[in-house]
Every structure is written in structure tokens, then in C-alpha cells.
Amino acid sequence: NLYNDALQVLLGQPCMHTAVAEALASELNDSQNGCHFQQRGALAGLLNITTIQFPIGRSSKDLEKFLCYKELPGFPQPHDDACRVLHSQIQAATQGAQGLVYGALFKIIKRAELRENVLSWLAGLLCTNHLRTAAQFKGQEPDPLNASDGFMVNVCAVMLRLCQPIFTSVVTDRLKKIDPAYTSQLWCRLDLHDEPCLARGRIESKHRLKAGFERFCMPAEYQGKANFLTECFHLTQLALYVGIMPAIRRFNKTLSDLQRSQHGKEGDELNNVQAYSTIFFLSWGTSLLDPMLVRQCCEFYVTQAVWINMLLASAAEEGGSEEEIRERQRTTCSTILEFSVKAMTSWFYLISQFQPSSLQGMSLTALVDCCVNLLERPDLLPSPLSQTRIVELLLAFLEQSGRSSRSMRWGGIGHGQLASIVHGSPMVQELLGPALLHTYAAVDVVEGLDVDKEDFDKFGARAHIQRLLQLLWERHDCRSSVIALADTPRFQRFLNANLDTLLYQMNDSLRRVSNVRQLQLAKDDEKTWKSLSSKERSEKEAFLRSEESVGSSFMKMA
Hints:
Order of helices and strands: HHHHHHHHHHHHHHHHHHHHHHHH
Helix content: 55-70%
Largest sheet: none
Oligomer: single chain
Structural class: mainly alpha
Shape: globular
Radius of gyration: 25 Å
């Protein structure tokens, strides 16, 4: 605390504002890759304070730094109260470091002659780390040329604080000042070339070089063209995509791998895996699920949902035929980055699974309305991946299905509270059912270079849509909106896709049943089975468990 207080006093001196601004400009000029900001940055010492580490070594020496988690009562299934106390103590330190960075940047931004240094530094930090989102690094060991997950999560926390004045919980009129076309303008300092947008739009930013951009610094003739709220909003969108989304993918993948690795283990070997899993979850969760970060990120994405709804409504208020209105809406949305929608749904899905208590008391109606708005308009959101993310989120809100182990989940919220948010939306009653019929048939294949295309499971996505339709079917008001389409081409396409899915799942599950039976007969032949090496037996048993699991799952889906 004394160290933080001393730094706060030091950074609060007017002479330090100029010194830090000049250091940021020099840092940006010297940077060749994303890791430069973490290794040699002026603010790196504060932004590197984190509990997130990847990979976490398994040796006793590597785990010594996580001794505070191992000493929790009940470890490797520590008591919730003990976890909360430890988390709050660690989070107080990380929040203090984030607050110092925020305070320093905010005071520099308030000085008009120095503001450009901060904005260009933030743009450079985010754009040079954009490769963190690339498919080849997804879920794998991080690229050493990029900043780490822990560093970037702290950057996101700072950006959310800078963006807080526009949160809808504070004020809504300021949203009208955010320019949706900023990403396509000559004065956009972000390097987003070829980034897909809603309504099949795509960013063309080759003009940045022609406009005289150097190291993300705004040319003098363009400074002031975009207001600060517009720049801050779009910088925060990019920060969450580049910073938190790769961290979420790595977090989920590692947890999934660790849970699978427990199969077939027992005794000390099982205890070691469980202990390692708990350390990973608690250490990452301390930073990634920090209550302040969670709350502010949720508020930002609710604000984004309100903003998108506002843009669609504003285009409709101009009048004209239905096609003219839809064309204006497509034009407006054609510069809204598609990743902002995927990141929004991915974030809320994570929170609904691991920390749903954070959503308590938060107004999420705008979020649900935005999701239904986009799902109902495939001309605005044609991507099957984005459509699937929305379905998964709505289903998670309705079912509240999450991790059952208390060591893998903090807090709780009544089952009906999140469900009532979805059920209470008039748009859900009128539009969601018909939208799901279309989405079921449209969710087929993912084309192009989408970073998440490898995660796409056509039949898994359709199973989620079926489950969501079943839940809606139980409500008379939602059921009538589906029945009204019974004699339409949309309903016929849905039935055709349903039959296609049924035939595939039945055929695949029966094939796997045959494989299971062959492996069972092979194991019954003890002489032949024992003649195999332990590695071969282990591989065949793993294949047997996999076939049993997938076959059973497909049979249930069918």
C-alpha cells in the first residue's frame, strides 16, 4: 500500500505527465512486436502484476509460487469462503496497480497536447498484439513475440476504466456521439485491414499508409476528426478481443484438457492432476474473474448492445419501405466489427458458467434484445459461428447449466433470474422461434479464415438450437410464432435439415456401437489382449471410451 501511495503521488506530479507521455511515444517508436510493451514498456512493471501464468510447470519448484493456493483449507477442493478471502487480498493488489496505470493515462489524456501520445500508444500496443487471435496460436502455448495473457488482461482492465463514462449505467446520451463508421474512416488509427464486419462488410484500411499514418500516430490534419468517446470505445472493443478472448480460449481449453486427463487415473496420480487443475483454475480465475473486471466488462458489452439496438432503431425511424429500412440498417452495420459480437457472447457465456452471481442486479434486457435482433436478421449476421454463439448464450441463460464442482465455480444466482431475463423479452416471444428455424438450416459449414472455425460443430450447434426450441415450445406465446410458419419454405428447410441431422447421427452412432463391440470382444480374448504392449492397450481403451462417449451422445441427440 505504501508503494502504491508513493507511486500515485509521484505520477500525480504535472512534470511526470510529460515524462510518461514522452516515454510512451519513445516506446511506441521502438516497438517491433507486441512483447516489447511487456518487456521494456514504461508501465510494464505495473501491468505485469498478475496471477495468470501459462504454461504452469508441474515440478515442485514451479508450484512453489502458488503455495498460497495449496495452503487453502480443504485443498484440492478448497472452501469457498477461504478462496474468496485470498482472492480479495490478491485482487486488491492487482486492482491497485491497474488504478495507477489508469490514473497516469487519464491525467495525460486530459492534457490536449499530450493526448495523442496515449491514444497512439494504446493503438500500437493492441495492433502489434493482434496476432494473439490467430488460429495457429489458439489454445496453444503463447507466441513469444506477443504479450502474455496476464499482461493483456490488465491492459483490458485499464481500458474499461477509461471507457466507463459511456457505460449505460452512467449515461446513455453519450452513445450517440460514437461513430459506427470510424473503423472505415481515413482517420481511424487502428490497423484492421480485411477484418470482417456485420452485414458482410469488410474493413479496407490500406488508406492508412496513404493518409500518412506512422506508428499509429494520427496525422496532424486528421487529429480531432474523431471524438475521444469514439476512439476510446473502438480501442476498448479491440482490447477485449485481442486481450481477453485469447485468454478465455486458453483457459477453457486447458481446463477441458485437465478434466479429460483425469480419466483412468487413481490414487496419487489422480490427486496430483486434481491439485494441478485447482491451482490452474484458482490462479487464472483470480485475475480473469476479478469481480471489478467482470462487472465493468459486462457493463461495457451491455452498453455495446444498447448502442447496436440504438443504431438499428435510428435507421428504422427514418421511414420508407421495409426494404429501404433494411438497406439502411445493413449500411450502418457494415462497419461494426463482427468480432465485437462474438466477443460479447463469449464473455457472457463464460460468466454464466463460472461466476453467474456477477450478473445479479444487472439489466441484461438490451443484451438479449440485441442477440435476438441479430439472430433474426441473417443479412446482418450471416456467420454460422456468430449465430451459434448467440444460441449457446441464450440457452445458458435459460438452463443455467455450468460446472457443478464448487472448485470450478464461484457464486450463484437463482435459476429463474437469468431465465426470466430471456423469457421477459417481447422480442424473444415474437422473433426468436422463427429465427431459430432459419438458423438451424443455415448452420452448416464455416467458410473462410475465421479463427474459431475449428471449434465449429454443426451437429452440436443444431442440438443446442433444438434444445432452445424445446424450451420455447413450452410457452404458448412463443409456440404460436413457430406454428404460424408451418406452411412456409422456412419451415420446410428446417424439416429437411432436421432429417439430415437425424440420419447422420443415427448412422454415426450405430457405426460407433459396432466399434465398441469389436473392442469389447478383443478385450474378452485375454491371451491376445495381454500380448499387446501396455501402450497399445492404453490407446485402445482410450479409443473405446471415446467411441462410447461420442456414440452415446449422438444417440441422445438423435
